[in-house]
Amino acid sequence: MKTQAIRRAIWAAALALGASGSFIAAPAAQGGTPSADDDPNKVASWVDFRDGTFKDRQIDPHGDAVIKLEAPARAADAAIVPISITAQFPQTPAHYIRRVYLFIDQNPEPYAGWFEFTPESGRASIETRVRVEDYTFMRAIAETNDGHLYSAIRFVKASGGCSAPAGKDDEAALANVGKMRLRALASSAAGQPQLAQLMISHPNRTGMAMNQITRQYASAYFVRKIEVTYAGKPVMTANVNFSISENPNFRFYFMPRATGELKATVHDSQEHTFETAIPVPAQNASAQPAPARM
Amino acid sequence: MCRSRRRRLSSSAVFAAVGAALAWVLTLSPAHALPPSSAPLSVKELAPGFYAHRGHDDVATRRNGGDIANIGFVIGTRCVAVIDTGGTLAEGRALRAAIRRATPLPICYVINTHMHPDHIFGNAAFVDDHPQFVGSDKLPEAELSHSQSYLHVLTRELGSVAAGSRVIVPTLLVHGKLDLDLGSRVLTLQTWKTAHTNSDLTVYDKSSGTLWLADLLFAGCLPVVDGSVIGWLDDLAAIRALPGIRRAVPGHGPLDAPWPQALEAERGYLQRLANDVRGAIRAGRTMQQAVDTIGAGEHARWKLFDVYQRRNVTAAYAELEWEQ
Q1: Which one in A162, A277, B201, B279 has a CA-CA gap of 20 to 30 Å to A92?
Q2: Residue from A35, A77, A181, A245 whose CB has the most chain B CBs within 10 Å, to mutate
């Protein structure tokens, strides 16, 4: 929380600097408007994070055989940028992706979080929507169970996704906090990973948008942890922050080996916990399992 | 539906103070850098004393100077009301020059129909007229919370063409309906539920049967959803049922857009957008898949389709995915 407060102070200071007449020059503090032609290995925020988190471990920059990151080259709406991180091989106990880090270089809080997977995930893929503050590199770093790191990088053009005012109706958003929908999407072939979706009603406020009438920042308020289990075993665990868009939305996989319960537990930054669960039938129990939802 | 005038004025005083305090914060560069006079903006007299300027059907560029919205003014026997001020201070000044060519009467109201930059950034041209700046009660927060990013983009796209442009928040707020008397001519202002934006406001001139719909109506240019597709459809149904309308002025597109056909065309687009997005959600398609596929058949019908369609699908998807 302390680092957030500091970051917010820096962010507010940057806004003030911009407002005092040097607005046009503000991006120059970071070396000009980021461009897809920049060297992604030299972005300051990334270098800091890499050195602090991965120390001197090598990251394979050509990770496309392991992990793919898809994001629009130009965001339609900077506050809701759909992204997908797709594993390029199935999860097996012998070889699987353990964790995927998500990093958005030019966001006020560049480290968006991590997603953890297990062999029970079937496939270490995740789709969600993120806020993007500026033209930026976006990175997914996959860590396999043997400790290797692989990165996939995209350049995204977007403006103002973090400092933009939150949704159109703040009161309604707060009233619905914690409402969830969990469902298994399409039925999968036997032995194949099953796609699931978790929707969480939550403002996921950045704390970076000032109410311009009261001159107050509504405090950051966001989903920080999501644990999804199937038949009692973890299939997807996310440790995230307000880089995820309002009403966080995740698609992921799990292996439906037998009848079991798919359960999601969500914790937010005000220490609320929300739970939801659905029964998932075994593959051969029903030819067409009905999509279940809350 | 109408707040008491006293309450409006007391809150307007607060907003005036906030506006003054923020003036230095939100200005791009000193206004005195601009030439002192401007050539009058081209305007057409739609009805006696009711003038409109036709903006370019484009996004804001240096070439068009940010002049992309339809803006106008209405003259009574006592004073003048301005309806939107254009995309830059320079355009606002050109509009003011056009007013001065039409009448010497004072400018008592500057109405902003919503928060978008192409409608509000000419406001500064009218400060010395000391008008009431008029808008939805949602407008101050909407404008101020977006002002940094609006000015950032304006500067990026227009550079020095945008010099001196700044946000000036309304001093007179409307919630529901409000009548403005220009002398022998009353304009009825009305706010709407969140549609194009959360701060949409229309202006009706009963004497000529002219309804200024601003960006609640896009004619020939793709409607842009920055509010709610469902709210917009509701509003259009209510607007379609209004009596006495002889002419509707769109915020974008021809000033003589056929009424009510232009509204029906827009309603058709928004309804198809909502239907297609609902279908995609039901079929389990992702937001990105919806963005990539929906609306191909609309491409030939609308200008600026390529600029705004993906945004519209994104907005509609986020709005509609919880309703099923």
Answers
A1: A277
A2: A77
CA atoms within a 13 Å half-sphere pointing along the CA-CB vector of A276: 17
Distance, in angstroms, between B244 CA and closest chain A CA?
32
Alpha-helix runs per DSSP H in B27-177:
89-102, 117-120, 139-158
CA–CA separation, B254 and B263 (whole Å): 13
Name the A residues in 74-93 with CB < 8 Å from any B CB: 76-77, 80, 82, 84
Does B227 sit within 8 Å of A21, measured CB to CB?
Answer: no
* Contact map slice: A 255-284 vs B, CB within 8 A: none
pLDDT tens, residue by residue, B85-141: 999 999 999 999 999 999 999 999 999 999 999 999 999 999 999 999 999 999 998
Per the CB < 8 A criterion, the answer to whether A168 and B198 are in contact is yes
Contact between chains at B287 and A18 (C-beta distance less than 8 A)? no
Model confidence over B249-305: pLDDT tens digits?
A: 999 999 999 999 999 999 999 999 999 999 999 999 999 999 999 998 999 999 999
In tens, the pLDDT along B35-92 reads 446 799 999 999 999 999 999 999 999 999 999 999 999 999 999 999 999 999 999 9
The residues that bridge with B178 in the sheet, in sequence order, are B189
Whole-number CA gyration radius for chain A:
20
pTM of the model as a whole: 0.84
A68-78 residues labelled b (16+ CB within 10 A) or e (exposed): bbebbeebbbb
Residues of B at the A interface, defined by Cβ within 8 angstroms? 18, 22, 25-29, 140-142, 144-149, 151-153, 155, 194, 198, 227-228, 284, 286-288, 291, 310-311, 313-315, 318, 321-322
Does residue B260 have a cis peptide bond before it, meaning omega lies within 30 degrees of 0? yes
> Scanning every residue of chain B, which has its alpha carbon at the shortest distance from the alpha carbon of A12?
B148
Degrees, nearest 5: CA angle A56-A60-A62: 155
Test B314 with A19 for CB contact under 8 angstroms.
no
* Cα distances (Å, whole numbers) of residue B249 to B110, B135, B205, B270: 17, 18, 11, 19
Q: How many residues does chain B have?
A: 324
Tell me the nearest-neighbour CA distance from B202 into chain A, angstroms. 20
How many Cβ pairs closer than 8 A exist between chain A and B?
90
